[in-house]
């Protein structure tokens, strides 16, 4: 399978958002990763519907929306309306996760579930066949630019086993601290999609950085 690079727009220059969107359009990246934070589920507030709508206006690639918000059911149709293609909610934020996943699919979006670093893979056992994507947090959600948590490798392997055992089609995505140093090993462990924020946007040449990341995970 062709592996996916998803630059996180949280690390973009918000005063030059259109420029950074066009950069991603012109690059080898596959998805736009959009981080929504509510100041409740995570100790930070990022942006909401008007900004996502503005990104969608220029974005020519899949909109991968990662909700770090409590009670995401309130906004599922709103996220569809502003252009989300994939909607990922946090396991820790959903009391009725099965219902939430069905509601996302009913809106015609792909449905993902994200796990915090302390949340074991086993909690997905009874929902994995319903999922299009599992997003493993490799940092504690809330901020870009943190260091990668090494325990992620173990979780990726466990998730891969669960997906195969259950016959699920879910993609494995990893988010946080992804760099040129760890992307190849993550890919070998079974990761399909890689979110990279600071490593892309703080680099001298983001287009080249995306090409470099993509090359390391493309089948040789
Ligand atoms: C963290 C966000 C990430 C973040 C990744 O809460 O979910 O998507 O933007 O940023 P880096 O790649 O800088 O760790
Ligand atoms: Zn994210």
Please give a structural write-up.
With 220 residues, this protein is α/β, with parallel strands linked by helices. The protein has a single domain, classed as Aldolase class I (TIM Barrel, Alpha-Beta Barrel). The protein contains eight helices and eight strands, in the order E-H-E-H-E-H-E-H-E-E-H-E-H-E-H-H. Strands 1-8-7-6-5-4-3-2 form an eight-stranded parallel β-sheet. Helix 2 links the parallel strand 2 and strand 3. The longest helix is centred in the C-terminal third of the chain and has 15 residues. It is globular and about 45 Å long. The N and C termini lie close together (12 Å). The structure holds D-xylitol-5-phosphate and zinc ion. D-xylitol-5-phosphate binds next to strand 2, strand 8 and helix 7.
The distinct bound ligands, ions and cofactors come out as: D-xylitol-5-phosphate, zinc ion
N- to C-terminal distance: 12 Å
What is the alpha-carbon Rg in Å? 16 Å
Content of β-strand: 15-25%
Strand order within the widest beta sheet:
1-8-7-6-5-4-3-2
Q: Can you identify the CATH class?
A: Alpha Beta
Overall mean confidence score, pLDDT = 98
Fold-level CATH name: TIM Barrel
Q: Helix/strand-derived class?
A: alpha/beta
Low-confidence stretches: none
Principal-axes shape call: globular
CATH superfamily: Aldolase class I
Count of helix runs: 8
SSE order, as H and E?
Answer: EHEHEHEHEEHEHEHH
Q: What count of structural domains? A: 1
The counted number of beta strands is 8
- Helical fraction equals 25-40%
The name of the CATH architecture is Alpha-Beta Barrel
Largest sheet: 8 strands, parallel
């Amino acid at each position: 399978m062709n592996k996916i690079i998803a630059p996180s727009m949280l690390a973009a220059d918000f005063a030059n958002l259109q420029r950074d969107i066009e950069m991603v359009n012109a690059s080898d990246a596959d998805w736009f990763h959009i981080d929504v934070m509510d100041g409740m589920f995570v100790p930070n507030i990022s942006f909401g519907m008007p900004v996502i709508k503005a990104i969608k206006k220029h974005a020519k690639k899949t909109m991968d929306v990662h909700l770090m918000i409590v009670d995401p059911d309130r906004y599922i149709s709103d996220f569809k309306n502003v252009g989300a293609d994939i909607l990922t909610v946090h396991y820790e934020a959903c009391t009725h996760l099965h219902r939430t996943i069905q509601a996302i699919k009913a809106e015609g979006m792909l449905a993902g579930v994200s796990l915090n670093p302390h949340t074991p893979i086993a909690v997905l056992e009874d929902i994995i066949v319903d999922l299009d994507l599992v997003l493993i947090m490799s940092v504690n959600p809330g901020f870009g630019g943190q260091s990668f948590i090494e325990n992620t490798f173990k979780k990726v392997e466990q998730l891969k086993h669960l997906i195969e055992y259950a016959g699920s089609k879910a993609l494995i995505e990893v988010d946080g601290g992804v760099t040129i140093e760890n992307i190849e090993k993550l890919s070998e462990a079974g990761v399909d999609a890689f979110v990279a924020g600071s490593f892309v946007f703080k680099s001298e040449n983001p287009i080249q950085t995306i090409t470099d990341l993509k090359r390391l995970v493309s089948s040789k």
